[in-house]
Amino acid sequence: MAAKPHHTVAKLRREYAKLGLPNSGKRADLVRRLQDCRISATAPTPADSSSSDEDFIGCWVATTILSHVSDAIEMARQKLIDAAQNDTLQEETLRNDDRVITNRRGGFLSRMREDLDDVCNKLAILDEKLEATTARLTALTADHTVKTEALFAKTDELERTAVGFRDFRNKFIGTYKRDILQDYNDENINCFNDGDVNSNDTTLVTRS
Questions:
Q1: Over the stretch 109-140, which tens digit does the pLDDT of each residue have?
Q2: Which of 112, 106, 96 is nearest to 12 (CA)?
Q3: Which residues does UniProt call coiled coil (predicted)?
Q4: pLDDT value, residue 143
Q5: N or C terminus: fewer CB in 10 A for the chain?
């Protein structure tokens, strides 16, 4: 069973000391020894298929053995039997309202498991939120791409339109100068000076 990331070596050693467990070694060793010493037992499932998990109480009994023994499994079995028979057992209600029967060391492991379950549930929720956010960002990116392409197309269209208007304006001024103002006089100049045209237009159409 993996410890939560914030379970430092110092914190694990303090917990080991409270439980009367050997607290020497590195963090990985402390976590591994917790795994080796954990046992969970529940009553056998009855034949009645209508029973649910709420009909049972989990039983957690934990102990420790020496790390260097010839038959660790057999020693663990005997130590667990002794702990179940001789340790003080108590009933605890966890934060999720699950009830467990446990000795002191088993209670520590059950609380660590509950903490791990909480972390896993929160990670699952975060994964769902991340997927939803990623989907929204993908949709926004696609929409942005479409709008950007439309903007570029509109810009090209406006540029072509501006060039067309410029060419039309120049052609109109040239034609007007050639066909109408070839014999211009002061009356023509005053008309342009008073009209809605700029000085360049006036110069273009009033000079030979």
A1: 777 777 887 888 888 899 999 999 999 999 99
A2: 112
A3: 109-143
A4: 93
A5: C
Domain encompassing residue 161: 154-206
How many distinct structural domains can be found in the chain?
Answer: 2
Return d(Cα 187, Cα 185) in angstroms, integer.
5
d(CA 186, CA 54): 108
Q: Are residues 79 and 172 in the same domain?
A: no
Q: Which residues neighbour 61 within 8 Å (Cβ) at sequence distance 6 or greater?
A: 39, 41, 80, 83, 84, 87, 89, 102, 103, 105, 106
76 phi and psi angles, rounded to 5 deg:
-60, -40
91 DSSP β-pair partners: 101
> By three-state DSSP, how is residue 168 classified?
helix
Taking the C-alpha atoms of residue 8 and residue 185, their distance in angstroms, rounded to an integer, is 99
Looking at residue 82, its amino acid is D
The pLDDT assigned to 138 comes to 94
Six-digit token string for 10 = 């110092």
pLDDT at 146 over 90: yes
Are 110 and 181 within one domain?
no
Alpha-carbon gap, residue 170 to 157, rounded angstroms: 20
Contact 65, 73 (CB under 8 A): no
The whole-number pLDDT of residue 41 equals 37
Report pLDDT for 55: 63
Helices then strands, counting H and E runs in the chain, come out as: 6, 4
Q: At what angle do helices 199-206 and 104-179 cross, to 10 degrees?
A: 30
